[in-house]
Amino acid sequence: MAETIHLYHTNDLHSYFENWPKVAHYLKRMKKEHAANGEEMILVDVGDHIDRVHPITEATEGKANVDLLNALNYDAVTIGNNEGITLPHEALDTLYKDARFPVVLSNLYTELGERPSWVKPYEIITLSNGTKAVLLGVSVFYEKFYQLLGWKIKDPFQSLQETIEMVKDEADIIILLSHLGINDDEIAAKEFPDIDIILGAHTHHIFEKGKLLHGTLLTGAGKNCGLVGHISLTVDNARTLVEKEAEVINILSEPECEDTKQFLVNETIKSDEILSETVTVLEEDLSLDWFGPSEFPDLLAAAIKEWCKGEVSMVNAGMLLEPLKKGPVTKKDLHRICPHPINPCTVYLKGDVLKEVILEARSERMEQLKLKGLGFRGHVMGRMVFDGIEVFTEPLEDGLLHVKEILVSGAPIQLDRIYTVATVDMFTLGVLYPAIGHAEKKTYHMPEMLRDLLAWKLKQVHSSKNA
Question: Is 77:50 a contact under the CB 8 Å cutoff?
C-alpha cells in the first residue's frame, strides 16, 4: 500500500514577523490534520529566517527566531547568508544553542577545518513504514565574508558530492535544503541525479507547482513567508518514491496563532529595552536630504572614510532613512535609521575608474533607483555623498547638471593613480557599479555594520565638542 509523506518548507522569512503568526497557525493546523489521517509530515526551513532589519532579531542576535522555530517543532533547518555573514562569529556560534532541531549544513567549517558542534552534514528521518528520508543542507559560497568572520565555507557542490556518497546507499529519498539560489539549484539537479527534491531559497523565486528538471523536483516559495511550500511524496511498499508534487500555499488569509502573536509582543518589549541604551546626546539636529546636501550623510561618509582609513569615501544618502533629532540617541534610533546588514569596505581604484563611478553615481537614474536586495533595506538610492572628493557641475542645454570637474583631496583627479576608496560592500557586488565589482583589491571590514560606525562617530564628535 502506497504511503503519502507531506513535506513543508519555509524560506527567506527575513524576520518579517508580520506573517509568522499566520504561518504558525497554518502549520499547526496541518500537523493536526495529517496526524488525524495517519500521514507523515516533515517540516524544514531553508535559511534567511533571520534578518537584522527587525529590532527583535537585532536585539536577540537571532535567538528569538530560533524560539519561533522551536515552537513549531521543526524537523531541520539550514542557514542562509543572513544567519551566516551578518552575525559576529560568537553570535552565530551560539545562535542554535537552545535549538530543538538539527542544523543541516555540510559546507561550513571552523578556521581549523573542523565542523562546528552545532551543525550536521545530513539528517536521516526514518518514517513509520521504514522509509528513510535524508535531509542535506548547503549555503551560498560567500568565501571572503565567512573568512573575515572566522569561518571557512566550502564549495557547496564539492560538499554535496561528498555527502551524497556518504548517504546514498541507505537513503530512500534525498531532499536538499539549498540556500544557493535558482541558478545553482538547476546545476545541482543536473549534476546530482541522486537528489529527489531541491527546496530552494536565497533568490526568492516562486515555483507554484514546482519545476521538474532532470528528474529532480525544484521548489521555491518566494520571500517573507506569505507562501509556504508543500510537497506531497508518494512511497510504495518497496519504499520507492513513485510520485512527487509541489505547490505553494498562500497563508495570508489564514487566522493568526495567538500564542505566536503574544510571543512577538513580549519580544518587542524586551528588544525595546535592550536597544534603549543611549549612544550619545546631540546638541542639534542632523539634517537629511536624499537628493541634496545635508549633514547626516556627510557624517556617515566621514565615518566610513576614517574607519576604513581611506583617502576618500563614497556612500549614498538613501542609506539613512530618517534625520537624527537633537537629544538622546539610542541604539534603537540608529537601527531604525540605518537597518541594513551592510558592512564598510575599502576598494582600490584607478583614477579613470573612479571617475567613471562618480559620473554614474551622479546620474539621475542612479539617484532615483528604488533598490531591493544586496542588503539594502531603504527606499531609494539617493545622492552619492563623498568625503575627500569634490564634484563641480554645470547646467547644459538639456536642463540637466553635468560634471565639469572632479577634485580629489583638493587636486584634479589623476586618471592613472590608484586611490584608496572607503565605501560599502553593497557596491562591490557588481550589479550597481561593475567597475567597483571588478576591482582586483578589496578589503571588507567585518562584523561592524554602518550603524556601528555611526555610533562610533557620534560618540567621537560629541565627546570632542564637550572636551
Answer: no
